[in-house]
Amino acid sequence: MSLKTQAEELNNILIDNNKIIYELLSEKGRAIYFPKEGILSQSAQAKGKKINATIGTAIEDNGVLASLPALQKNISLPVDKALAYSPSYGLKELREIWLREIKEKNPSLKDNNVSLPIVTCGVTQGLYLVGSLFVNPGDEIIIPDKMWENYNLIYENNFKAKFVKFNIFDKYNFNISGLKEK
To answer: Averaged over 117-143, what is the pLDDT?
Structure first.
């Protein structure tokens, strides 16, 4: 299956199930996907097999992740918890807990079909993923005047978006009217 075909498949699923989300996606967002084949899917297939040396992971004959003894003596977690690559989307157990929390804190979502959230390495990676999915060159992003510099690097430099700024505070309060004006 070609890469383009896999992206088209996912786009058709979005169109059939939630066309609004599809329409929000940037051009890049409509072209990216998690491949069904290749090293990442091979890693999932190799999990639990007798021999598994995918993505830089080596398993000893006893089934334990290979590691240096000097490293093992300095960590308090089991080696497989401390040193193994986590899944690309994040640990499933963490994602399930997070989804439960989301639904508990937002009762209106309880009966809705909400997907598992993904875990990122940090805010910067999360912002980059949002840009990849939803920002096209020339798009305007409404943003407060107080922000991290990495917003400029991610959205203006990388995605060629334009910032439309508003003053975040109106004296001592959040400037809702300033945001509405934009």
So the answer is: 94
- Closest by CA position to 160, among listed 26, 30, 33: 26
Per-residue pLDDT at 101 exceeds 80: yes
Question: Which runs of consecutive H residues, i.e. helices, occur in 18-122?
Answer: 19-24, 27-31, 39-46, 69-72, 79-82, 92-105
d(CA 95, CA 90): 7
In sequence order, the 6+-apart residues with CB closer than 8 A to the CB of 20 are none
What whole-number distance in Å separates Cα of residue 150 and Cα of residue 162?
14
pLDDT digits (tens, 9 = 90+) for 53-67: 666 677 777 777 888
Alpha-carbon distance values, 136 to 9, 29, 126, 162 (Å): 22, 9, 17, 10
Measure the CA–CA gap between 164 and 182, rounded to whole angstroms.
7
CA dist 148 and 123 (Å) reads 11
Amino acid, single-letter form, for residue 97: I
